[in-house]
Amino acid sequence: MAEKKELSFEESLEKLEEIVKKLEVGDVALDDAINEFNNAMKLAKTCDEKLKKAEEAITKLVKDNGEVVDFQVEE
Fold this sequence. Notes:
The protein has two helices and two strands, in the order ααββ.
């Protein structure tokens, strides 16, 4: 059995947008709509987690001595 590839943020967001469009049209049977909604919620969670990780990564700086510090804007 093939291993599932983790989707990138962009791929997840694109699939989420496709599901939203499909559900907005309203041409989906109730059971299918529920399945699509559940898939959308999983994708939204994945996107949120990836955004949080990215935010954490870009708010850290590594000094010359290797010390990791929070990024601070000096005014």
